[in-house]
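Researcher: Batch entry, complex prediction.
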Amino acid sequence: MPNTVTSMLPHRSTSWLSTSATKGRKWFQRSGISGQLLALIIVMGIFTIGTRGKYLSLVNLQVILSLAAIPAIIAIGLHQVVVLGAIDLSVEGVVAFCVVIVGFLAHNKFNANDVGLWIIPITAGVGGGAGVINGLLNTKLKIPSFISTLGMSWVLWGLAVFVSKGQTIPLLNNPLRAVVNGYVLGIPNLAIIAFLIFAIIQLVQDRTRFGRYLYAIGGDEVLSAQAGVKVHQTKIFVFGIAGVLYGLAALFLAVKLDSAQAITGNNLLFPAVTAVAVGGVALTGGIGGAKNAALGALIVTALNDGLILLDVNPYAQQAVNGAVLVVAVALTIDRKKLGFIK
Amino acid sequence: MSAAVLELQRITKRYPGVVALDGVDFTVYENEILGLVGENGAGKSTLMKILIGLIQPDQGTYRLRGAPVVIKNPAHAANLGVGMVFQEGCLVPNLSIMENLFLCHEIGFRHFGFLSKRKMRDAAHAALGTVKVAADLDTPVSETTPAVRQMIEIARLLWLSKLYQQRNPVLILDEPTTVLTDDERNTLFSIATELKSQASIILISHRLQEIVETSDRILIMKDGKRVANIQARHAGIPEIEQMMVGHAFAADRFREDEQIPPGDQVTLTLENVSKRGVFEPLNFEVRQGEIISLVGLVGSGKEALCRCIAGLEKPDTGSIKLAGKRLTPGSPSEAVRAGIGHIPIDRRSDGLALGMTIAENVNLLVLDHLKVGGFISPQREKKNALRWIQDCRIKAPSPSTMCVNLSGGNQQKTVIAKWLSSKIHLLVLDHPTRGVDVGAKDEIYRLIRQLARTGVGMIIMCDTLEEDIGLCGRMLIMKDGQLVNEVNCPPYRKPSPSDIISSIV
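Model: Structure tokens for the complex:
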């Protein structure tokens, strides 16, 4: 087939339509993250001045990276659903359920189970399964993702509390503890893991057919289906990947806390949605990639870390976060209007 | 004659209450341009949807290059070398030109499991070369012009037929020129003529001139049947029109005999209205029942002027008065409340709520009159809608048909019905007959005359100068933002287009 691809005769002698005006756009402008990088620099700059340099200390930078890792992993999963033009509100339920699974199956204080390293594929699989169900509800039963994933979150959260009776399950000698809490060359391992996940997803988005289909569906689902995109399959897969990443995040959280309890899942959705929006992923779909989600998580974490260093009241912090979310969405929607009209 | 590439025999398609296609035979030969014409609702689009597998016929056979086929969906059709360039375009807006070109057929570009951008780039340049487009491949399609988008779609279909080794692909161009400038249109047709050496093209258009000039053969459809199959070089536009509509048109195309002299009362007064850099201070009046045509080239400022009158833009100076009462500039809601209607050029996006029914659209502005005891009465609503649907001859199964399912002509009639029912004093019509077939055009002219008789003043901008002259009672000519001339157009003593053109340019 490649032969037929290249054998088309170009007779490029007279070209009548040209869009070369955009040719000179530099990588920086084109990357789709220029505004986010700028925001990150500004945020860090302000806090560096505000804390008289304390903010830029090695310890604080390590803290930021380590705190950003789990929101980043979750946001990377979530943002692909957003790119589809859907939303996934099941994060907290999936994480709670997966954390409880970790509590029961890893070496723990309550029962004799110990699946060792198998806990990694198990939690990823359980999370992925929940994601696939989200996808099936959305595509096959045609339930809007807003409702299906919200319902899923409550179902799983309820099950998690019910099964664990609301208790905290202490973990014993978890083999992952050293990995999750360790550093390589001063960089937190969790941050490295998050970076690897980012790199893989970004590569998949840029250089595989799946990536094309993802953005095609986000741009226009009907037209994509007409062009031959397997819309349902792609959507289910995207929800599935999101679930896998939530499952992994749950595992890391449990290991980090050295215990498993359902409430570990609480308060994870808001930072993830904020990260996705702040990163520049358009909530209307079709625009933004893993780089946006990861950078968004970093910005949000850097902001909150700075507020803590400045001793800002936690309730005021919450208000700031809410404002940041709304402003970020306003900005991404505005920019999109310039780009295309759906 | 060369061999048939695509043959449909005795195709029938029924919908509840209508036979959309009634035993239609349809053949496309190699290397030809086939013009397909017919009124809205004649069955052209149903036929094309069957060609690309969007819908399946109830009866009949489909043969492609001699072999019977069942086309499952548009993607399947494209693989078999049959593709359609839709009026609205079918490229995904946020993807780049290159990504759109190869969407769903990227597998040949894989290199160690990942897509090779370099291979794709080379193929994309080659593919775009066949339609003479030089464009930055990474530009999102949403940032390109409609002309480029059409060419990308054509390039994609040609590339696919090469990829799947389909000889002589069939390209369907559905109303390709409605979104193009004159230059772009000429280029499109010269490329289409060139592509004849490797493909067949089905051209659908309401502009009969371009059909006659470009096609080799013309098929005429009416009421789900094929009524004629003629060689283009023997065809004349009046005969084609007659076959499309089923009866001859009177010489009085614009219903001049119904033109009435303007009333005494002044409806609209513009005093010193200007917009910086767009048009200079203007003064004119529109009387009751008077039709004023605004004429001028693109950039003459006429569009902006109309938008100012409808309240969609805010003029920098001057005042706009309706029946002596000054309107707040730049307020569309006040304009509507005062009785100024506006029929925009893009009715799909501005004029109609497409997701609502005909009845809801027609009643939208008169809900207050339909209330009984403070609540909207369903009975009155239905009565009002039915009255205007009949009056405006909107062809639809029922008042609760969604507007999105109506043909262009019937959508336009619904927009007019909405304004007619709301007792307006002034109506701004921006290209009211664009994309509308001959029969529906006549209906629209009838409605415009009816509006005039009820005393509505109108400002129109038409698709052709002939239409402007035929419809209006007075013509205002704008050039470079200035009112340069005023020409009276009384019935039966109309000026000729050549008289007008000299003052436009």
